[in-house]
Amino acid sequence: MRGESMILIASMITAITVIITATIKVCKAIKMIAIKLHDFQQSMEENTMYTLKLVVLNNELDRQERIDAGKRYLELNGNGFVHAVYDNLVKEEAEENVERANKPNLQ
């Protein structure tokens, strides 16, 4: 009986060791995936900001498209020169709307 008990205890210790080792490996893999996901998300945010910046600064695009891109840029905490350009675009759009509203309707 003593030999069987030792075999049982050794088997249990081996099983626990395998479970702990597998758990540690899974945790490391999850941590690695989380880090890579975070890096990817950060890269996507940087690319989004850069793309929005290019749209706002591109004079060849429609003003409303540039305003929409500027609004999204500011929502993502962008500022600086692009913010100033956005403010000018909004001001120009408002002035143009006032001119259109004050223009007599010729029918």
Describe this structure in words.
With 107 residues, the protein is mainly α. The protein is 85% helix and 0% strand. The protein has 3 helices and no strands. It has helices at residues 2-57, 63-75, 81-102. The radius of gyration is 31 Å and the shape is rod-shaped. It starts with a helix and ends in a 5-residue tail after the last helix.
In short:
The protein has three helices and no strands. It is mainly α and 107 residues long.
Average pLDDT rating? 92
Which parts are unreliable, with pLDDT below 50 for 5 consecutive residues or more?
none
Share of helix, binned: over 70%
Number of helices: 3
Which structural class fits the helix and strand makeup? mainly alpha
Major beta sheet summary:
none
* Helix-strand sequence: HHH
**Strand segment count:** 0
Proportion of residues in β-strands: under 5%
Q: What is the rounded Rg?
A: 31 Å
Shape: rod-shaped
Topology of this protein?
Blueprint: H1 2-57, H2 63-75, H3 81-102
Helix pairs in contact: 1-2, 2-3
Tags for this entry?
107 residues, mainly alpha, 85% helix, rod-shaped
